[in-house]
Specification:
It is built from 29 helices and 5 strands. About 65% of the residues lie in helices and about 5% in strands. It is mostly helical. The chain has a 5-stranded mixed beta sheet. It has helices at about 1-10, 15-35, 45-60, 85-95, 100-120, 125-135, 140-150, 155, 165-185, 190-205, 215-230, 235-250, 255-260, 265-280, 290-310, 315-330, 335-340, 365-385, 390-405, 410-435, 440-445, 455-480, 485-500, 515-520, 535-545, 550-560, 575-580, 585-590, 605-610; strands at about 505, 525, 565-570, 615-625, 625-630.
Length: about 650
């Protein structure tokens, strides 16, 4: 046995498989950029690239970002976690090319950022490996998980190099946290894994707001586990460092401190879960299940009461309103901000069957759905029970993240690594069944049922076929992705950059604010940071002016905010404004009816019409259906 252990420790196979998985994932995520050297960051990606450039030039985020929400500007650090910008800047500094000034420097930074995002997405294979190794105890299952996450379309779709957002790095840190936590629960490794889980969570919270859902989910799991089984020592030892870090992060991270997250219900539930694990009376065998349940309900009630007394608004209030509107089928009869969020693509709901679409889990999703049956068939109840509470935590995460993905499809990037871990566990189970059934005694020890070798061979072949088909879908997705601004929009942005003064301010729809700030290098009244209450109010204010009768209200707003220029999009984008301000026109547009009557006199409609006169707005440039207007009395054109 000792010799076998030494051979296993020195076996280069696992390292080679991980290296291959990371390399494959990196190549796939860089494929769109390799096929299109002129690929561009758009929207959110353009904003994040600008923030990274600011960190490289000044060493920190700006105290006030003067290009957004002009004329006041925006305190970005009070609204967003800064970790992505500092990590990307540090990565760029490690590379051999020079500064970020000039066009060559700008392009060098874009290449660095694409590699950074793609590498972060590909490296998820490493924690997926270790998490699967912890839960299954099998190197072959771990290898399957690493290869699966490299090609799963649901993860690929939001971690391509041009997708400069929080998803890739945030998911990497969250899955690292999960891997450490599963190791701590499965093997009782004590301080090392528990602290690793806590530090990975702290880093995730510093990178991605979505990571806030993780301590809340874990608190729910711990409270449920205590009510069911009691305060188990392994759960307490694994969870307490994470809970402590989550609580401290509420004060250490500025964006959480500003929103007073420490007094929110999710944060207080983490405190309640920590107290439940520490209570001697709640340990297994100390109290009846009914008493444990009563104690847990009491702790949850105290957390809720603390939220009421603290007077802290729920950090998920807008999401809860969105869910209520979606459940009721409301399209227009909601508050304007909820209506806006209903139209944001990444907040769309995902129909259950769409989980098996080529851009999601595809054929691998079938095995994810069938995993409980396969594990019971191959390992039996006793075999699964031996992995508890780690297996219980993994099952809870799988169910919770599936639900979140069905509610908001952007969460598929978090679901995909959990799917890969489950797939690795399933593959390890399929490989172990014959060995476990070699004799009746072995079957009894493993808790597995005796089964025919032919059935297991068929299942293995079907599993390989489904994973291969999913890999092909991932490859085809990589080959199909492109990221280029609309040529006419790009021409309008170039005009603004080259023919307006450096301090010019531009009014346009919020969807194009980030591109104006980054590509045109001009200040905007509104942009895509929907987390900002000021930005929300400005969007409603500007959209109301766009839809006001005649151009006077829009002109007054532009002059009051110092905006001397207006970028007008094509007419097919009129609906996104109308749904916030004019339910009748929005309903007409949804039916395909063009504006008529008094709607033709609305400011934005008049500016969208070719050859239409709308003083004091002077047409200065047009490319396709995109137009640039100058506000009379505003800033002069650049000579």
């Amino acid at each position: 046995m000792l010799a076998a252990t030494k051979r296993s420790a020195s076996d280069p196979g696992p390292a080679l498989v991980m290296l291959f998985a990371v390399t494959l994932g990196l190549v796939l995520r860089l494929t769109p950029g390799l096929l299109d050297p002129g690929i561009q960051f758009q929207s959110d990606g353009a904003f994040h690239a600008r923030m990274v450039r600011t960190v490289l030039e000044k060493g920190a985020l700006p105290a006030r970002d003067t290009l957004s929400n002009a004329p006041e500007g925006r305190d970005v650090g009070a609204l967003l976690p800064p970790g992505l910008y500092h990590a990307a800047a540090a990565f760029h500094r490690m590379l051999p090319w020079g500064d970020v000034t000039g066009e060559s420097g700008r392009r060098a930074l874009e290449v660095s950022l694409m590699v950074f995002v793609a590498l972060a997405g590909a490296l998820v294979a490493v924690p997926a490996w270790f998490a699967t190794r912890a839960i299954s105890g099998d190197v072959r299952g771990a290898a399957c998980a690493a290869l699966a996450i490299a090609v799963l379309p649901a993860h690929l779709h939001r971690t391509f190099g041009y997708w400069l957002r929080y998803d890739a790095l945030g998911t990497l840190l969250i899955v690292t946290h999960l891997a450490f936590l599963l190791r701590a629960l499965r093997h009782h490794r004590g301080v090392f894994d528990s602290l690793g889980a806590a530090l990975a969570l702290a880093a995730a919270l510093a990178v991605w707001r979505v990571a806030l859902v993780i301590p809340a989910l874990e608190a729910a799991f711990v409270l449920g586990r205590v009510a069911w089984r009691g305060a188990e020592r392994e759960v307490r030892d694994a969870f307490l460092p994470t809970a402590l870090v989550a609580i401290l992060s509420c004060f250490a991270l500025r964006y959480l401190a500003v929103m007073r997250y420490a007094l929110s219900l999710p944060s207080l539930l983490v405190v309640a879960a920590a107290l439940a694990t520490l209570a001697p009376r709640l340990r297994p065998g100390r109290a009846r299940a009914a008493w444990r349940l009563t104690a847990v309900v009491g702790l949850v009630a105290l957390a809720w009461l603390g939220t009421l007394l603290g007077g802290t608004p729920s950090p998920y209030a807008s999401i809860l309103r969105l869910l209520a509107a979606r459940a009721s089928g409301a399209r227009f009869a909601v508050d304007p901000i909820t209506s806006l969020m209903l139209n944001v693509e990444e907040l769309f709901a995902l129909p259950p069957l769409y989980l098996f679409a080529p851009q999601q889990l595809f054929a691998a999703g079938v095995w994810f759905a069938a995993a409980p049956l396969v594990l019971l068939w191959g390992r039996g109840r006793a075999g699964i029970a031996r992995a508890a509470p780690a297996s219980a935590l993994l099952a809870f995460f799988a169910l919770a993240l599936t639900a979140l993905t069905l509610l908001f499809y952007r969460d598929k990037v978090l679901l995909a690594p959990v799917v890969a871990i489950v797939l690795g566990w399933v593959w390890a189970t399929l490989l172990r069944v014959p060995a476990a059934n070699a004799s009746g005694a072995a079957a009894r020890r493993g808790g597995a049922k005796r089964t025919g070798g032919g059935t297991n061979l068929a299942l293995r072949l079907a599993f390989v076929a489904c994973l291969s088909a999913t890999a092909v879908a991932g490859g085809m997705l990589a080959l199909s992705r492109r990221s280029r601004l609309d040529p006419d929009l790009d021409a309008g942005l170039r005009y603004l950059r080259e023919h307006t003064p450096a301090g010019a301010r531009v009014a346009s729809l919020w969807e194009y604010g980030y591109d104006i700030e980054s590509t045109a290098d001009r200040a905007t009244l509104v942009d895509g940071l929907l987390e900002s209450p000021l930005n929300q109010r400005r969007i409603l204010e500007l959209d109301a002016a766009f839809m006001a009768p005649g151009p006077d209200s829009l002109a007054h707003l532009c002059r009051r905010r110092g905006a001397g220029w207006v970028l007008v999009p094509p007419a097919d984008l009129l609906y996104t404004v109308a749904r916030l301000t004019n339910e009748k026109l929005a309903a007409d547009l949804l039916r395909g009816d063009p504006p008529e009557g008094e709607d033709l006199n609305r400011a934005l409609v008049r500016l969208m019409l070719p050859e239409a006169a709308a003083p004091p707005f002077e047409p200065m440039f047009a490319s396709g259906a995109w137009r640039v207007y100058r506000v009379s009395g505003g800033a002069p054109s650049k000579p």
